[in-house]
Amino acid sequence: MSQLLWSTPKTLRELLCELVSWDSITLTEGETTFAPKALDKLRELKYFQDHPSHLQLLDAGLGRYAVTALYKHPEAVETVVLISHFDTVQTEEYGALQPLAYFPEELTKKLMEDPSDLPESARIDLETGKYLFGRGTMDMKMGLALHMQLIEKATVEEWPINLVLTTVPDEEVNSAGMRAAVTQLVRLREEFGLTYKLFLNSEPSFSQNPTDIAEYIYSGTIGKIMPAALFYGKETHVGEPMKGMTANYIASYLTQRMEWNSLFRETDLGESTPLPVSLQQKDLKMSYSTQTPYRAVALYNVFLFKRTAAEVMDLFEQVATEAMDALNTDYQKICQREEVKGVGTVKVLRYEQLLAYATQKLGAEEVERLKQEALMQEDWDDREKSLRIVDNLMIQCQELAPATVILFTPPYYPAVNTSNDPLIVEAVELLKKSGQSFNNKIDQIHYFNGICDLSYVNYDDSGNGWTAFESNTPVWGDTYSIPFEDMAQLKGPVLNVGPFGKDAHQRTERLHVDSAFVEMPVMLETLIKSLY
Ligand SMILES: [Zn+2]
Predict the structure, then answer these.
(1) pLDDT tens digits, residue range 125-141?
(2) Which residues are placed with Cβ below 5 angstroms of ligand 1, an ion?
(3) CA 25 – ligand 1 centroid, Å
(4) What pLDDT sits at residue 206?
(5) Which residues sit opposite 448 in a β-bridge?
(6) Separation of CA 231 and ligand 1 centre (Å)
(7) Which portions of the chain are predicted below pLDDT 70?
(8) CA 443 – CA 385 distance, rounded (Å)
(9) CA proximity to 518, closest of 445, 438, 450, 446
(10) DSSP conformation class of 292
(11) Do the beta carbons of residue 134 and residue 110 sit within 8 Å?
């Protein structure tokens, strides 16, 4: 009989179901109570009873905590950081089955009773008996369960390597958890003299299309940044349209040039970033009236492989300038046709330029007050706050209008890739071989395309491209910040190896049981043992 708590497929499956039962949707009560429960669970291990200070809770804001658990071998210096997130997306889409979303065994049984309302591919998988359904099974409480299994084994068998289990909240929204953990990882490294040899995340392997059954390991992660704009036109009454310019008219020029713009496509190692699209475009009028909407905002999603925030801002400014040039040309023709003077040409300015102008005009104190006015609104998220800060400043600087003010809003995920690191090249070969022993074909992808917390380690930006983010993100330092300097200290290759599953973020989220409970434990143990 094993003395280990979580070492068999059965006990590991029970551990997963317990972690899933602690519902922890991002920004709910459950997300705040998860970390203390995880800590209690880790305290069941004798090692942490003997070393209580190796377990730590870190404040991630809004009552939420990240957890670090350090297994330190007395002689080992080299260290693997095991990264997971414990928050999940919402469960509304489960409908009548919502109460079972956190009980994988019960949910899977219930689905068996009447599989007919599942999409065909999910029904077929269900009937094989090889999948466990439930919110967070795949994304990504299984990753955490696997890391708990690893750290238990390492402590009992005294593996000559150090492990830092790091599990965090808020991955699905702003990654506040990982951004807090980064600073702790730097602290732990100094306190215990650790060398970080590998940052190992265990987000699930995502299928590339509905029939894809290959399993993937990822040696990097895609980045994401959100350029945004505030369009400030000139108000008028609908009866006198030529006396003003609507913000919607201005916005349409930029949005049309941003969506699917191939300037933003990056290609590296045979992979390409998806093209940009807008995530939001709205005018800021609170209700219907016959005054024309003269302030509007838009948010764009841009994926990254190599580019820094500074490079994206330059490109965004270029596109915005071209868009406004086109607008100004068209508008001039319309003014000629209508024999009016017009309201002027639309300028493009960066948030940092607006801020400098406003500070000079209004004084630093008044600018701070205008910022705080937006920051105090608790029901606004960081995006809304960012845009409203710009709006507040523009209202006081209307002589700049008509204008398009360009900025960034949170979140920002830098891209990371370490495919060419010799350790990763070897690890990928080893994992492929290990997969073969289970008759699984394992392929490598260079950039994990699901966005993950690995973005916040191994940061490399010798040109300080991040400063363009800092100076153009209105909420920077107030409600949002990124520890770029600490991230740059967490040097080390990254890898994502996790269980196979399907339909993350859907009601058919499901985990492949052999991959999760039989194959992954062997593959991950093989990987860690190859590092010492
Ligand atoms: Zn995830």
Answers:
(1) 999 999 999 999 999 99
(2) 139-140, 203
(3) 12
(4) 84
(5) 221
(6) 34
(7) 1-2
(8) 42
(9) 438
(10) P
(11) no
